[in-house]
Amino acid sequence: MKPLETAEVLQTSFFSQRMPAPIRLRELIRTIRTARTQAEEREMIQKECAAIRSSFREEDNTYRCRNVAKLLYMHMLGYPAHFGQLECLKLIASQKFTDKRIGYLGAMLLLDERQDVHLLMTNCIKNDLNHSTQYVQGLALCTLGCMGSSEMCRDLAGEVEKLLKTSNSYLRKKAALCAVHVIRKVPELMEMFLPATKNLLNEKNHGVLHTSVVLLTEMCERSPDMLAHFRKLVPQLVRILKNLIMSGYSPEHDVSGISDPFLQVRILRLLRILGRNDDDSSEAMNDILAQVATNTETSKNVGNAILYETVLTIMDIKSESGLRVLAINILGRFLLNNDKNIRYVALTSLLKTVQTDHNAVQRHRSTIVDCLKDLDVSIKRRAMELSFALVNGNNVRGMMKELLYFLDSCEPEFKADCASGIFLAAEKYAPSKRWHIDTIMRVLTTAGSYVRDDAVPNLIQLITNSVEMHAYTVQRLYKAILGDYSQQPLVQVASWCIGEYGDLLVSGQCEEEEPIQVTEDEVLDILESVLISNMSASVTRGYALTAIMKLSTRFTCTVNRIKKVVSIYGSSIDVELQQRAVEYNALFKKYDHMRPALLERMPVMEKVTTNGPAEIVQTNGETETAVLETKPPPSGVQPANQANDLLDLLGGSDITPVIPTAPTTKPAAAGGELLDLLGDLNLTGSPVSAPAPQIAQPPFLLDGLTTQPLFNDIAAGIPSITAYNKNGLKIDFTFERSNTNPSVTVITIQASNSTELDMTDFVFQAAVPKTFQLQLLSPSSSVIPAFNSGTITQVIKVLNPQKQQLRMRIKLTYNHKGSAMQDLAEVNNFPPQSWQ
């Protein structure tokens, strides 16, 4: 025996005498599984970790592989195993394949590019990539493709490229996947793999084909030049896919009767990328897509996966119209599948395509409506969204009937979205005003507590403009709130209508249905019940008190009773209600001669339109009135600390506040800083000097409605601009010029959302230089619907007395996909017509 071998034997004998052999991995797993409690398991792990540490300190080469394997198992259970990182490197440097295998596995699990230790293995990987054994080379490729940093990828890309050209299929498929990782880490190395990648598609081995398609997909997604270069490979990809479809049974690749579905899906995804926005490539793949769509078996989930990828490819390329109809019919068949996941996927896909292929999706309307009855809430939500997207002037009655039935029976979390959708659809496609009013009243009766804040003023405007329906509407609303005040928006609209048209209710002039006999005292009883009801909110009581006051000019026999009710609420603890009562009491005592004129019936409210053709309607169907009757507007004042936070972001110390309702007077000092304007805060401490233009308002909290047009028709030609377009959020500005003051520019913002999820808690804030004054009115909503199915509108009024070029800085905050989003942007491209 040689002296060196003798020394190794003696050393092994010495270690075996000094410490016993560690238990095997299988025995450790069996022992840990016998633990009855978490504490008992933790104790076992700690004991074994202590033994492993001792073995590592003793430099025990005999059992290092076994100890690292046990350490990896503990790591998989969630226990710390970082102390085994260097031992993994020692195993990698070993000449034994079993040691290398565990060492590389440990490196992939315990190391990553954030730790400098991983750089120590670069030379070992380089040596193993040039090893004579393919399995050792495979281990090195897997490790580099799993956790290689950008430095390692730059150093070893040449070796990977060499293996990509080898004739060994086992190494080529692993090298292709490793090349994908290299490209992700160092995109500029992409051209190095270009020559080898072209030849990969000629390989017969399915594993190499699969990985080559993955590599091609990665290169096309990351480089437009590569995308254009590889478009000439479309015929070859089509030929490979056709061979897969037409080939006979192959036990090596067959999955549920389909030949290599994984490769088919990958090729379809690559064709989708290559055919997007390219007529020639799309034309070359139309026939094969039709063959896949018609020949694929749908009884198994494997076939459904291929069909789904085929549908996505057809919809994403410039395919023929007949092929798109075929794709939508496949999705329609998916809706009849018993698998909930397939139904959900079909609904989501149809929702994405309904805007471009509306008529084809309409054919499956009945199946989509049936999905509203599904027990799965995610399917139910997608079906609801798709149902609203399918509503048009031809089917509005039938679809609204189904959606109202759904509103009656759906869970509370659906009611708000469903009610909003019905409002928008009814406003856009209502066949008659009576149907429109009946539909909205049905929603308020069913889910009044869940409707958006703008539902009440919108319905009031609708009722006001439907002159012939006043008697019918007030009678319906009166009957709807008899004894039930739980639906506050319904009670608010009913109170407003009773106050406006109470004389029609008492006279029984309704021609639409059988009139009811109501006395003046019965009407007042209802309104007084609303005032004292515990379910009535402060806003609702304000509606009721104002309605009672209006009835003093509509009724003749109960004026004294009305005076008494008004005087009682002059001492209410509700400040809003008290102020109304005091002012109404002053009307009776000091200005009784003005009372009939002040409380006369509201004129027809004109809808505020934006620039552009008159027939274009806002997508969310919302309307605005010049002044909303009696409903206190939501406060636009932000908390002071929030104002200061935004000021810190924008910089500067001179503050010009955003005016929430009417502009306050501010000094017109010079200064160009773009500052935030939040809250009605005069933070400058400067005395009031030049008065800003005042917007006419009624002297009391009464129904004031200006009859003068708010906007100048001359400004109809001002072009709109896109102020912000990022992360699926788009904000457009349209412009009007005030008719009362040419120095006032009225900007209407429209925020839309093209992503697949709603944006909630949306807040738009704006800042202008000190020489301007800004008034930011309340937004129409705080939720921007997904898929561009609706918009938020908000009005900004800017006073520009010096006719300077308009500049603005905006701040956007909202919640999206569970995360709070915030962004700042500057808008400097205002058209000259908007400020000159």
TrEMBL record:
Subcellular location: Cytoplasm, Perinuclear region; Cytoplasmic vesicle, Clathrin-coated vesicle membrane; Golgi apparatus; Membrane, Coated pit
Residues annotated as transmembrane: none
Protein name: AP-1 complex subunit gamma
Organism (species): Zosterops lateralis melanops
Chief place of localization: cytoplasm
Primary role: Subunit of clathrin-associated adaptor protein complex 1 that plays a role in protein sorting in the late-Golgi/trans-Golgi network (TGN) and/or endosomes. The AP complexes mediate both the recruitment of clathrin to membranes and the recognition of sorting signals within the cytosolic tails of transmembrane cargo molecules.
Family, per entry: Belongs to the adaptor complexes large subunit family.
Stretches of the chain forming a coiled coil according to its record: none
Pfam families: Adaptin_N (PF01602), Alpha_adaptinC2 (PF02883)
GO annotation terms (biological process): intracellular protein transport; vesicle-mediated transport
Topology relative to the membrane: Peripheral membrane protein
Keyword annotations: Coated pit, Cytoplasm, Cytoplasmic vesicle, Golgi apparatus, Membrane, Protein transport, Transport
GAE domain sequence ranges: 716-831
GO CC aspect terms: AP-1 adaptor complex; clathrin-coated pit; perinuclear region of cytoplasm
Nucleotide-binding recorded as keyword: no
